[in-house]
Amino acid sequence: MATEQNDGLSDSQESFSDFWTTTFQIPDLNDVDLEGIELAEIVKKCEEAVPNENVKVETPTVLDTDVNIVKKEFVKQRPVPSQIIDKKVPFLCVESFSGEHDFQVVFPHDKSPITKCIHHTYSPDLKKLFAKMGERCPLHFTCASPPPPGTVIRAVPVFRQSENMMDIVTRCINHTLQDKSSHEATSHFIRAEMPDAMVEYSNTVHGRESVTVLYQTPDSGKENTMLLYRFMCNSSCPTGINRRPVSLVLTLESDTGEVLGRSVIDIHVSSCPGRDRTGEETKAQAPHMKKQIKKRFVNKRKHEAPKEKDDDNDLYYLPVKGREKYELLKKMKIALDLEELVTPEQKQNYYAQEEENQRSIV
Amino acid sequence: MATEQNDGLSDSQESFSDFWTTTFQIPDLNDVDLEGIELAEIVKKCEEAVPNENVKVETPTVLDTDVNIVKKEFVKQRPVPSQIIDKKVPFLCVESFSGEHDFQVVFPHDKSPITKCIHHTYSPDLKKLFAKMGERCPLHFTCASPPPPGTVIRAVPVFRQSENMMDIVTRCINHTLQDKSSHEATSHFIRAEMPDAMVEYSNTVHGRESVTVLYQTPDSGKENTMLLYRFMCNSSCPTGINRRPVSLVLTLESDTGEVLGRSVIDIHVSSCPGRDRTGEETKAQAPHMKKQIKKRFVNKRKHEAPKEKDDDNDLYYLPVKGREKYELLKKMKIALDLEELVTPEQKQNYYAQEEENQRSIV
DNA sequence: CAGGCATGCCTG
DNA sequence: CAGGCATGCCTG
Ligand SMILES: [Zn+2]
Ligand SMILES: [Zn+2]
């Protein structure tokens, strides 16, 4: 009962966006509301002007009054306007399409060994990028034909699970408030680190935080455009991503905000990207096998060769003597297969009911 | 190099008290400094008046202007005055002495089994109290002779390691800011839950957060005084205790602030106090032994007896010889139960996929 | 409610 | 940098 109170002790995989609005209550700062309304009007204007969810902020001057900047200041100093943060927002389109310029995110094969805490590593099997918080992480883009001048690449993080897709991915409370750098977007989960390219932090009309980088043709001799990003929270951060799976939506956008192409990649940010990659790959290959032989990271100086056996998809033939047993086990086999189709919600209800039954036995 | 910046990504076992002062920078709230100075003067006065570090706040009226209350408001609304929080404070005396009233903290033997997530459990071997965050935790006190009227029991948490002993134990950022209850001390790590006794939250002259409860003689028939506390953070909380060992200093204090007795206990607050207690006890006994035989927690319901019902909901017991068969059939039973939850649509897809698989075998 | 995973981080 | 612990929390 003690933990039922709203005393900050609730936990688990939920959104904490609620926090941002209700935590700061400053009765003597009434101008806040005024600013909030003004913002809402700005947002409204954008919404009317651009049907696409992504809003390209035209000039740096406008950027200064962008909702994002305002939010950042509010996070550190004032209440966050509820219309910006405290809401479920519409799904962001996560459907990849390369478009007329054949826009794609590519991961050049990295020959260096996957150390446990490698800064970034991409798993082709899982189609997932594993990165270390705070470290530079390169992403490579290709275009078959050069897009028009002023085209940008926008990065927007989204939650992958349906339960969370309407929540905004943002930085956790701890990391946001502890950030004493002069960065202009301390609340953003993703930053772009391009000394030469123009970077802009802005929000979509619905309030999703994004960063755009001016598209540049590949450096001479290179066949793709490389941008450096930094992920400013772990995927596990409490009050932030909080262990929820996240994808990164990368869009090629014209200077009018038209989406020319879209590419979506799964990402996992942690302190040990190498460990987590191999762990997930192993689990994907042998879901139910007890981790007897734990994947060992090879000390760079040593060498090795062994490989794991994947018996989960192997086909076996079970000889069964007698019709009755065969029929029963056939039923069992079907039940086992069907069991995998049961949704988590169904299972939850089932186990809750089981508990009940156990209790009523006594 | 990226992580060397002050962008909120530093971690490890360090104090975060620095955060409270530098995070909030509000140039247009100059009155803050004034208030800060005023506070400093209040503190100064107390310091001059009472040589002992612990300051008994005389009246509730004074309590309202206590540094603690001010801090709490600042945490949520304004910069925290640096003179209150952002400093190393002198060691608090952690030497136990029972004094003339033979003041002691006692832990009556608890006969109930130590479940994994028991709310509180004391290890006599380790002389350490393991508690679950947010749950009521009783502490029992004894006095050989009744102390004078107005005597209180003060609880102050302190870090046990020398590197941290000068830091103030307080609640983590996440839990403090997420606490939307109307509690008067949302930033405090320790709360007292005494409906009948008088509770006061205050700070020592050096800024350590404490809670005092008016001492009451044991209820008739009881031989000790029981107080209920709640620990509002885990020992692991980032930006809070952050995995650093913590002790609880319990002092019996007269109404003039004189310390009549002191008792110090080690505490560990986590989500699984039972597991952590047995784990630490095991490690203390066999420090270097590999954990081969892991301590098993006994399911309370495991040995309970069945009951009779009727019809299709009858419960039967299937004797199974052999562990492996039992495990398999247990899985089967669950599968059969879950199978009933599968929707017709799911089944349709399943059988279609089965066909596919069959064909691909050939 | 116990088993056990996921994951930050401490150690050698 | 890999091994491995500590610990919140998910699963069955
Ligand atoms: Zn974070
Ligand atoms: Zn906490």
Automatic annotation (TrEMBL), chains A, B:
<keyword id="KW-0539">Nucleus</keyword>
<dbReference type="InterPro" id="IPR002117">
    <property type="entry name" value="p53_tumour_suppressor"/>
</dbReference>
<keyword id="KW-0862">Zinc</keyword>
<feature type="cross-link" description="Glycyl lysine isopeptide (Lys-Gly) (interchain with G-Cter in ubiquitin)">
    <location>
        <position position="283"/>
    </location>
</feature>
<feature type="domain" description="p53 DNA-binding">
    <location>
        <begin position="95"/>
        <end position="283"/>
    </location>
</feature>
<keyword id="KW-0010">Activator</keyword>
<keyword id="KW-0053">Apoptosis</keyword>
<dbReference type="GO" id="GO:0000978">
    <property type="term" value="F:RNA polymerase II cis-regulatory region sequence-specific DNA binding"/>
</dbReference>
<dbReference type="GO" id="GO:0000981">
    <property type="term" value="F:DNA-binding transcription factor activity, RNA polymerase II-specific"/>
</dbReference>
<dbReference type="Pfam" id="PF07710">
    <property type="entry name" value="P53_tetramer"/>
</dbReference>
<feature type="domain" description="p53 tetramerisation">
    <location>
        <begin position="308"/>
        <end position="343"/>
    </location>
</feature>
<dbReference type="GO" id="GO:0046872">
    <property type="term" value="F:metal ion binding"/>
</dbReference>
<dbReference type="InterPro" id="IPR010991">
    <property type="entry name" value="p53_tetrameristn"/>
</dbReference>
<dbReference type="InterPro" id="IPR008967">
    <property type="entry name" value="p53-like_TF_DNA-bd_sf"/>
</dbReference>
<keyword id="KW-0805">Transcription regulation</keyword>
<dbReference type="InterPro" id="IPR012346">
    <property type="entry name" value="p53/RUNT-type_TF_DNA-bd_sf"/>
</dbReference>
<keyword id="KW-0479">Metal-binding</keyword>
<dbReference type="GO" id="GO:0051262">
    <property type="term" value="P:protein tetramerization"/>
</dbReference>
<feature type="binding site">
    <location>
        <position position="172"/>
    </location>
    <ligand>
        <name>Zn(2+)</name>
    </ligand>
</feature>
<comment type="similarity">
    <text>Belongs to the p53 family.</text>
</comment>
<feature type="binding site">
    <location>
        <position position="175"/>
    </location>
    <ligand>
        <name>Zn(2+)</name>
    </ligand>
</feature>
<dbReference type="GO" id="GO:0006915">
    <property type="term" value="P:apoptotic process"/>
</dbReference>
<keyword id="KW-0804">Transcription</keyword>
<feature type="site" description="Interaction with DNA">
    <location>
        <position position="116"/>
    </location>
</feature>
<dbReference type="Pfam" id="PF00870">
    <property type="entry name" value="P53"/>
</dbReference>
<feature type="binding site">
    <location>
        <position position="233"/>
    </location>
    <ligand>
        <name>Zn(2+)</name>
    </ligand>
</feature>
<dbReference type="InterPro" id="IPR036674">
    <property type="entry name" value="p53_tetramer_sf"/>
</dbReference>
<feature type="binding site">
    <location>
        <position position="237"/>
    </location>
    <ligand>
        <name>Zn(2+)</name>
    </ligand>
</feature>
<protein>
    <submittedName>
        <fullName>p53/p73-a</fullName>
    </submittedName>
</protein>
<keyword id="KW-0238">DNA-binding</keyword>
<dbReference type="InterPro" id="IPR011615">
    <property type="entry name" value="p53_DNA-bd"/>
</dbReference>
<dbReference type="GO" id="GO:0005634">
    <property type="term" value="C:nucleus"/>
</dbReference>
